[in-house]
Amino acid sequence: MIKVVKFGGSSLADAVQFKKVANIIKSDPSRKYVVASAPGKRNSHDEKVTDLLLQCFRLAGEKRSIDETFEKVANRYREIIRDLKLSFSLDEDLAGIKMAIMHHAGCDYIASRGEYLNSKLLAAYLDFPFIDAEDCIFFDDAGKLDSEKTEKELSQVLSLHEYAVIPGFYGILPNGMIKTFSRGGSDITGSIVAGAVRADLYENWTDVSGMLMADPRYIDNPRPIAEITYRELRELSYMGATVMHDEAIFPVRKARIPINIRNTNDPKAPGTMIVSKAASNLVDTVITGIAGKKGITALHVEKDMMNSEVGFGKKVLEVLESHDISFEHLPSGIDTMSVLVESKAIEECKGSITAEMVKKVNPDSITIVENLCLVAVVGRGMVATEGTAARVFTALARNHVNIRMIDQGSSEINIIVAVEEKDFSTTIKAIYDEFVK
Ligand code: ASP
C-alpha cells in the first residue's frame, strides 16, 4: 500500500503544525511520499511565505531594499527549526537565495523557494530523503507540464527511495529555469507524484475536514461531503467550490487513484473521498452539493424562425469568439438563444458585440440582462430520483426567488439556475433546506 500525502501551507505554518504533520505521517507506514507547500498563514493577519517572496521579487525589480521582507521569510524557517530543536540550518540556502533575488533571479524561481526550503526542513525533521522537484518535474518549451518525461523520471527516482519529501508547486523548463504552476499548485505536484508511483491513495491534508455541501458563508454549519465523484467535483469547483487546485484532479483521475481530503488539525475526521465511481448512487440527501457564482450577464438573442436558420448559433458564438470571450451556458428556445457569460469579460465590449451580432445574424432583438448569478445543484443521486427538479423549483418559488433561466446538464448530475444576484444567498439556503434539513 502506497499513500502520497500532500500538506498545504497552513499545515506547515509553524513548529506546532510540523509536529502534527509528523505524527500523521509516522502513524501510518504506507504514507511514503510527502509533498510539501511553503509555510502559510499562522493566523488571519499573517502573511504566506510565497507572498513575501513575491514581494521581494517586486522590491528588487524596483531597486529597493529587500532586507526587511527577506528577514521575515528567513525568520519563519529559523523559528520552526528552533522550536523543533533541530540541529539543522538553512542559513546557507537562505543567503544564496537572498543573493539571487538581489541579482534579479526569475519570478518563478523566487516564488518556488518557499516550497524548496520547507521541504528540506520537513525532510530533515522526518529523517526522510529530500528529492528536489527540479530533478523530476518537467515542463516543455511552451511551459506545459511534460507528463510523459515527468512520470518516467519521477517513478524511476522514487523507486530508489522507500520514503521521500518532494517540494510542491514547481519544476524545471528545458532551458534549466525553474517554473511554477499557478498559485496553490502544490496540489498538482501531489497528484502527479501519486500518479507516477501508482499510489493507492492521494491524501490532501489541509485545514478543513473535507468538502462541505455548501459555502459556510451562506449556510450555518453545512454538512460535510463523505464521498464525491470526480465529475461532481468538477461541476462544483467550476462554480467556485474549491478545496483543491482545479488541475490537480487530472493526473490521479487518469490513474483512477482516489483522493482523500483530510484535516491536519482534526486527523480523526474521515474527510471527503473523491472517487471515479462512488460506492452507491443512492445518496441520502439526493444532492451532493450546491455552489454558485455571481457576476453573470445574459445576452438574449431573438429572431422569428431562428430554429430553421442553419448556422444561426454558430454565428452568434463566432461573435463572442472574435472578442475572445468564452461562454458559461447556452440555454435556448425555439426562436431565442441565450448566452451566459462572465460580466467582467464583456464589460468593455458590450457595444461592439451587439453591433457585430446585428450585422451577422440580423436578429429581431438583443437584450442584455446584467447582475445575474448561477447556482448549481449537483448530485449523482439525481439520476435515480424522481422529482428533484420539482423540489428545487418549488423551494425557490416558496422563497419568492424568480428563476431567470434553467439548464440541466445532459449528464443529469446537475441542475443550474440563473437568478438575480440579490437572490444568491436565498437561493442557496432554500435549496439546502429543502434537501438537507
Ligand atoms: N505556496 C504556493 C502558494 O501559496 C503553492 C501552494 O501552496 O500550493 O500558492
Structure description:
By secondary structure, the chain is an alpha/beta fold. Helix content is 37%, strand content 20%. The protein has helices spanning 15-26, 49-61, 67-83, 91-102, 107-126, 147-159, 186-196, 230-238, 249-254, 312-322, 343-346, 350-361, 388-398, 424-435; strands at 3-7, 31-36, 164-167, 170-172, 178-180, 201-206, 227-229, 259-263, 272-275, 289-302, 336-342, 365-378, 403-408, 414-420. The strands form three sheets. The protein has a seven-stranded mixed beta sheet, with helices on both faces. The chain has a five-stranded antiparallel beta sheet with strand order 11-10-12-14-13. Strand 4 (170-172) and strand 5 form a beta hairpin. The protein is globular, with a radius of gyration of 25 Å. The chain binds aspartic acid (ASP). Aspartic acid (ASP) binds at residues 9, 37-38, 48, 50, 114, 168-169, 183-186.
- Side-by-side strand order of the widest sheet: 3-2-1-6-8-9-7
State which percent range the strand residues make up.
15-25%
Oligomer class: single chain
The percent of residues in helical segments reads: 25-40%
Mean pLDDT: 94
Query: In terms of structural class, how would the helical and strand content be classed?
Result: alpha/beta
Outline, from the CA principal axes?
Answer: globular
The number of distinct β-strands equals 14
Let me know the largest β-sheet.
7 strands, mixed
Low-confidence stretches: none
Rg estimate, integer Å: 25 Å
SSE topology string: EHEHHHHHEEEHEEHHEEEHEHHEHEEH
Q: If helices are DSSP runs of H or I spanning 4 or more residues, what is the number of helices?
A: 14
N→C terminal distance: 39 Å
| Distinct compounds present | aspartic acid
